[in-house]
Structure prediction request, 354 residues.
Amino acid sequence: MAQTLSSQTAQPAKHNQSLKAFAIVGAAVVLWLVLYKVIQPFANWLSYGLLGLSPASHLGSSLAFFFYDVPKIILLLGGMIFAITLLRSFFSAEKTRAWLGGKREGVGNILAATLGIITPFCSCSAVPLFIGFVESGIPLGVTFSFLISAPVVNEVALVMLFGMFGWKVAGLYMVSGVTIAIIAGVVIGRLKLERYVEDFVWQIKAGKSGILPDKPTWVQRFEIAWASTKEIVGKVWLYVLVGIAIGAVIHGYVPESALVSIMGKGAWWSVPAAVLVGVPLYSNAAGVIPIVHALMEKGAALGTVLAFMMAVVGLSLPEMVILRRVLKPQLIAVFIGVVALAIIMIGYLFNLVM
Prediction:
């Protein structure tokens, strides 16, 4: 009898918690939309009104760019992380591995690359994901299709490219990134490089993991999404500021002729040069997008700029260092070479058709 009364009392309490959580999230969405609307006028007032700078000056143009892009990208970043983490609560790593397991070559690569778009795993997740995928019996090439697609086709970059350049550029970015992931995964799979995976990876037994219960409530989903948003934004905000600062300097000070000579359509070496420059850099997609925007405004070729961005987010040195824990140098070298070649080919293709 006591247990029945306790259960009856708990149900309304859970219902009230859910209603409160939805109300808070709804209010946050409204606040997000309001803030996003006032960013542009606030940046202009701050640069040209409060500071008294001229819109035609280098400093005024750079600061207006900086004051506009910082809050804009932080808002986009936070909103997308929250939304994607909420979506990810329905697609756990275990479910992802289960969907990819047993798929034949080609089909598995396409499925893995597609899943990489909606699963926001970054380089810090590379090692546990790689171990989990390989241990679950997923072919090495299929695993690499996922690991390439997840950082290269970044959901934050996709949204920001759509907002800055329209659906055509965003669509081309997504299609090219998925294409790179599929081709690179198939090539790596055909090369039969399993012997270059560290031995301990094959010896690890899969265990069930996850921070959510099997059937989480909406309150739990919201809590995890908020915690993930705070954690990720807290880790990357500095990279966002640095990236925007570089973009602001390019926007206001770098001569168009200098950028065109480095990343212009007329220079045959601009695409591989952009990839070589991008590989040693480290930034998340949110940090590199302002640089992309500034380069595009200065007349740089779209394919060259996208090749630069993909190299930065898909072939960063920190990710290679992390992957060294599970991959031998030979496989890392093949991975870098195949992905870099695919990015260069996509860059040339975009420069040819755009």
Q: What stands out?
A: Residues 205-210 have pLDDT under 50 and may be disordered. Residues 93-207+254-353 form one domain. The CA atoms of residues 69 and 123 lie 24 Å apart. The first helix runs from residue 2 to 50.
